[in-house]
Specification:
heterodimer, A: 226 residues, mainly alpha, globular, B: 290 residues, alpha/beta, 6-stranded mixed beta sheet
Chain lengths: 226, 290
Amino acid sequence: MLEESFVATMLLTFKLAGVTTFLLLLIGVPLGYFLAFSKSRFKPVYEAIVSMPLVLPPSVLGFYMLVFFSPQNSFGMWLEERFDLRLVFSFEGLVVASIIFSLPFMVHPIQSGFSSLPRNLIDAAYTLGKSRVNTLWHVLLPNIRASVLTGVVISFAHTVGEFGVVLMMGGNIAGETRVASIAIYDEVEALNYALANRYALTLFLISFVILLFVYAINKHFLRAKV
Amino acid sequence: MSCELTLQKELRGAEGAIALDIATPLKSGELTVLFGKSGAGKSTILKMIAGLMEPECGKIVIEGETWFDSEKKINLPPQKRKVGFVFQDYALFPNMSVRKNLEYALDGKNDKKIEEILELTELTNLTNEMPQTLSGGQRQRVALARALVREPKILLLDEPLSALDYAMRGKLQDELLRIRRHLGLTTILVSHDIAEVYKLSNHVLELEQGKIVKSASASEIFGGSSLSGKFKFSAEVLHIAQSDIVYIVTLLVGQDVVKIVANKSEIEGLQAGDRVILSSKAFNPLLVRV
């Protein structure tokens, strides 16, 4: 019984981190591209918005998302009526919250990767008749692999370790929103130190192994860089 | 087939704003050099022809095709202009091998065409190398091969040899001559190097502050037609020192430092860094085998 809830919690934690990271990658590449190459006057505004989660206490972010997505309010109500989607105290809600919370961790490495590439690479591809998308896919992304990998890993690790936003948005529903970091807090409150330690140690080891894996790959990746 | 350039744009450079304003025909099949100080607008002109930068107004006609015409609101994107652009830093794609760089340019495989260009640029032995393992001269040749493989209507060379050492430069100039003779391609070359201009150009446009100040052949521009010397070298003044009633001028001719004696009228207004023509008339040259 105990074993089962432990496994379920760990699986949920990594499912959340995996789904979040995947969606963040889809959002982060175009957003990073836009921020790196935009000449808009409002670019500092966009950059500030993307970076907000870095400085805001997670509880502030969680609180506003809770209020915003609550079915008591118009947007939350619209989501529920239109899509049958309730984001508060649900797994989907955790994904949305994690995406917003980890956004800068994905976007920043990708943006600086794009910015560090010589402008002439893009111009060269254009003069060879390549479209913007083709250039992005065949020239730019392969040359910022290390940056993309960094973004993926940090976003993943950050989502695994997040606490405040999850607690505010998701609460502590076993099998739905109870992730490992919440479970640790929960078990400590119940003075169940042994189980808390198991969660903590597992997170510790898995995080270490992921990072080790990434640095090992990155060494190989970096060699092929510019 | 005709080529025509009329370009106007306000440029903001390191030394304040200059107004780029040029209008010139280009001879089809010839190599035209854009010569002038940095910041005179030379690279900008290449970028405008390639469509990487938009002139405020003007007209770009290459081999009878209108690529840009502000009056008729024609502005082809760079992808639709058939240019071969060789960048100063080569801009090879670091994630692709030499062959892949060419294949990518060609939208897939055309082995015959690629082999032909690789052979022409003497790169056959390096097809599977990655750009970062190549020397400067090899990279330059890959960049040229990549620019040529799509059979462009015009070849644009932005100081392609400036990062190379002297010997390699000479070798690649010969190659460029040979390849151009083979393909007969209309070419614009941006260059600082007078020796290079002499060697490669059919025609020279000298630019100053965004305007064409001279349009002539290399020997007319640099030759100093008032001189009728037997030997003529372009040189750079390194140092001027007075020695009794004469002056000793130290000059850089090519890669060699030479000292000559000059009188007061010759050195008037000269200072270190100036470009001069060093010529000699009636004297008996000695040839010694080295």
